[in-house]
Amino acid sequence: MSEQLINISFSVNKGILSSLKETKDEFITDILFLSALLFYRKRKLSLGKAAKLAGYSKIDFIKKLQEEKEYIFDYSDKEIDDIFNDVKNIK
């Protein structure tokens, strides 16, 4: 079963692209990546879904996150404590 795609478009002032020194295609690539990153950070999308939104494979998305110095795994202090406690209990 193939996934249905929808087309979303919006207008951007040409001066924005000029200020960013980006082409239309570069801007679209950045917008897709930054949107995916935001949804991933907010835990609205999994790593795999965020990668798909950005147009990357999961591995390439992880590499891009590393290039941007973004955390791949962002655990709270409690989650880290729980992980270490679970590891201690493994026999």
Describe the structure.
- The protein is mainly alpha-helical and 91 residues long.
- It is 60% helix and 0% strand.
- The protein is built from 5 helices and no strands.
- The longest helix has 18 residues.
- The model has no long low-confidence stretch (mean pLDDT 89).
Question: Key features?
Answer:
mainly alpha; 91 residues
Q: Residue-averaged pLDDT, rounded?
A: 89
> Could you give the distance between the termini?
43 Å
Strand content: under 5%
Compute the number of strand runs: 0
Structural class: mainly alpha
Order of helices and strands: HHHHH
Provide a brief overview of the structure.
The protein is 60% helix and 0% strand.
SSE layout:
Elements: H1 14-20, H2 24-41, H3 47-54, H4 58-67, H5 77-88
